[in-house]
Amino acid sequence: MALNRKLRYGMVGGGPGAFIGNVHRMAASLDGTMELVAGAFSSDPAKSLAQGKELALASDRCYASFSDMAEKEAAREDGIDFVSIVTPNHMHFPVAKTFLEAGFHVVCDKPMTNTLEDAEELCNLVKKHDLVFALTHNYTGYPMVKQARAMVQEGKIGTVRKIVVEYPQGWLATPLERSGHKQADWRTDPKRAGAGALGDIGSHAENLARYVTGLKLEEICADITSFVEGRVIDDDANILVHYQGGAKGVLHASQISIGEENNLNIRVHGETGSLQWFQEHPNWLYYRELEGPEQVFKRGNEYLSAAAQRNTRLPSGHPEAFLEAFANIYLNAGRTIAACQAGETPNSNDLDFPSVQDGAVGVHFILTALKSGKVRKWVDARYIPPA
After folding, report:
1. pTM value?
2. Which of 17, 102, 198, 263 could be disulfide-bonded to 202 (CB atoms 3.0-4.6 Å)?
3. Mode of pairing for the β-strands spanning 160-168 and 265-270
4. Residues 6 or more apart from 36 whose CB is under 8 A from it?
C-alpha cells in the first residue's frame, strides 16, 4: 500500500435494512486495506446514528446529512480518503458531486446517474479535480471474467461475431412493492430508480459484454415491457444489438422470470472459438474451439492469465464468488487511490475497475434502450463519454 496505512472511507446510504450497503462494507473490509470511519447512512438522522453505533463508529462521525459529512470530513486531519455511495439511484449524482467538489475520491454503486447530463458532469468533475471514481459493476471483478477478457484480447476465439448476454431474475414477478418490501419499493419507483430491470440488471449485462469483448454499441432495437399490472417501470427487456465493427448481439434482462435468481451469463462467439461464463457458477469458464473438445478453465490455476491470477485469493478447489469479486473492485480502486494520495502513478492492474466514463456509457445505454423501446425501432447507440 503506497500510503503505509489503511485507507479511511465514509459511506452514504446503507442504513438499517439496506442490502447492498452491507455487501459494500464486507467487500471493502475483506483485504484489510481500508476501514470505515464515517457515514451518513440514512436521511433520518436517528437511523444514521443507530447504524453508525452498530458499526462501532464514533458518534461525531455519524452524520445527519451527506453534505454535512463532506464539509466536516474535509476539515479533519484524519478525514476520509474516499466515499462509498450506496443510496438509491436518484441520490448518486448529488452525493457524488458534493464529495468530488470537496476533493474526495468516490466509489459509487451503479447505475451512476439517472440522466446523461448528470453523468457527463461527473466525468468533468473527476477530470477537473484529478480524482479517482470507481463504479461497482462488481461482475467485472470475477477472476474468470478477467480470464475471458484476456482470451478475447489474445485472439483465442478470433474476431468476435456474436455476443449473447442475459440477466434473468424472478423476484419481481408479483407486485412485491405493494407489500412494503424496501428493495422492491424504490427499485420500482421511476423517480428513485430511473429505470427498472434495465437500470438494475440490464446495465450489468451491457457492462459485462463490453468489459469482456471491448466492443462498443452501434445501434440497438429494444422491446421493453412492464408485465406486472399497475407497475409503471420496466420489468423485462429484450434487445437486439449491433456492435461497432460488425458483431451482433442479444441482451436480455428480466425480473419477472419465475424460478430465476441471479442467472447472469454471457456467451461470446468468434471466428475460431467461443467462451461461456455463468455468474451462478463463477469459478469455471468454458472454452470451445472450432475443432477439438470443450475445455473448462478453473479459477485458481497457474495456467490462467495474469489478471485472473491477481484477482484470485484462494487456491483452486475452494469456491470464490460474489463478495470476493466485489472486493476486487474496492481493492484495485483503493490501490489507485493510495497511489494518487502518495503522488505515485498507479499501474494498469490497479486501474482495472469500472470508471466514471464506464458509468456514462452505462447511463447512455439505459436511456437509449428506453428510447428504442418506446418507438420499437432501431436507434443509434454510439456514444463517446467525456475524456
Report:
1. 0.97
2. 198
3. antiparallel
4. 9, 10, 11, 25, 28, 29, 55, 57
